[in-house]
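Any chance you could type out a protein's amino acid sequence plus the matching backbone structure tokens because I've never seen that pairing?

——
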Amino acid sequence: MSPNGLNSIVKGKKRLSRILALATEQITRVRAEWILNNENPMHADPNSKVDPWDRMIIEFYGIDCDTDLFVHVFGEIERETSPFRNSIDPKKAWSEEQNDKYQALIDEAKELVDHFIHKEASEGQGPYRLGLMILHGGFSENELWNSSAAYCTETGYNSYMERISEIRLELDDLINNSNTKGD
């Protein structure tokens, strides 16, 4: 672009092209839609273009081994539930029944996800990754089901994924709506 062309845009005499707005978005992270039409949000979310699996790897500090992510996802769940499972304050601590339910859910989740580790890489990698992403709990349904892992998961595994989703919802329910011993 010529200096005169850029000057015309800056002075408002000429409208910015869609292509130039998209190029500007790539450099500045200011959304092209905001530049062209003042549509919010102003800033682009760089994570919106990254596959959820890759975002999870980045979140866990660049771990490059899938089995490590298994340990990290379950470790995060343990960290998230620890205040309820290990509290000496009866107003915060889960009941024995809640602890038993938690342990049963975790055992079942590990068994379901572990099932895919023993499959051929071409068959098990997609559902393994999708199961871990569901258990991670940090992704929307839209992100999960439009991910590369979902794309590589055969429909025959849908019942596994549905159960893993149910487990995550039950864990969230335990965490967010706990009926503690102190009630």
About this structure: The chain has a mean pLDDT of 84. The chain has two domains: 3-44, 49-176. Residues 49-176 form one domain.
